């Protein structure tokens, strides 16, 4: 991928500072990455596979925290969201407060250098964070490797990793996560047709840690 400001912390700090101001002004929670259907898709998969409601869930790059709120509304009780942008965590705290979901844990954390207490999760969810890391102007390939290493540290053996991406194909993601993970399922995503070829604008996969 071509390097992009979308891969920099400065971009996301500025973006979430704007969203935080907007929320304070008019109560708008901001953008939902990949739309509401992406959250529904994740929750449906968890429900279909009867994932216990007390399973520990980590939302990597939680942004405004709306996914965690929806998980809490669906009955999940052990929820943690992290983001390296303090503004994002401030915004997600305000969204949590507005929705009355006091049991959602939120913290400023860089997933590429996670703290020791970030470990033992049953489920990790990524909607766009791996995409953003892949656009980092400084050593994106090295940071992708750090990401996979961090995922191995924070996710329990046999734990589930649900990733939604608009930059990577299924085959590319299988290659990126080949060490330590096996594919369980590809989730259906919206399809588009261009020049007679049908493709997916978004890829959603479920991996299991070996």
Automatic annotation (TrEMBL):
Domain Methyltransferase: from-to ranges: 56-185
GO molecular function, one term: protein-lysine N-methyltransferase activity
The reaction(s) this protein catalyses: L-lysyl-[protein] + 3 S-adenosyl-L-methionine = N(6),N(6),N(6)-trimethyl-L-lysyl-[protein] + 3 S-adenosyl-L-homocysteine + 3 H(+)
One BP annotation, GO: methylation
Keywords noted in UniProt: Cytoplasm, Methyltransferase, Nucleus, S-adenosyl-L-methionine, Transferase
InterPro entries named among the record's database cross-references: Efm4/METTL10 (IPR026635), Methyltranfer_dom (IPR025714), SAM-dependent_MTases_sf (IPR029063)
GO cellular component: cytoplasm
Residue spans crossing the bilayer: none
Pfam hit, one: Methyltransf_31
Tree of life domain: Eukaryota
Protein name: EFMT2 methyltransferase
């Amino acid at each position: 991928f071509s390097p992009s400001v979308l891969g920099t912390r400065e971009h996301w700090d500025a973006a979430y500072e704007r969203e935080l101001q907007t929320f304070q002004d008019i109560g708008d929670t901001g953008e939902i990455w990949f739309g509401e259907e992406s959250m529904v898709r994740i929750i449906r998969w968890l429900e279909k596979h009867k994932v216990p409601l007390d399973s520990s869930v980590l939302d990597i790059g939680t942004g405004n925290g709306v996914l965690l709120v929806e998980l809490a509304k669906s009955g999940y009780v052990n929820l943690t969201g992290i983001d390296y942008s303090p503004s994002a965590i401030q915004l997600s705290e305000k969204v949590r407060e507005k929705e009355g979901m006091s049991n959602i844990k939120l913290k400023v954390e860089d997933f590429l250098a996670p703290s020791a207490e970030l470990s033992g999760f049953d489920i990790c969810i990524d909607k766009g964070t791996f995409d953003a890391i892949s656009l980092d102007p400084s050593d994106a390939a090295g940071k992708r490797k750090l990401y996979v290493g961090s995922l191995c540290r924070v996710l329990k053996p046999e734990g589930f990793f649900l990733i939604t991406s608009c930059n990577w194909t299924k085959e590319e993601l299988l290659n990126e996560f080949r060490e330590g993970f096996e594919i369980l399922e590809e989730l259906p995503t919206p399809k588009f047709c261009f020049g007679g070829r049908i493709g997916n604008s978004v890829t959603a996969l479920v991996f299991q840690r070996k």
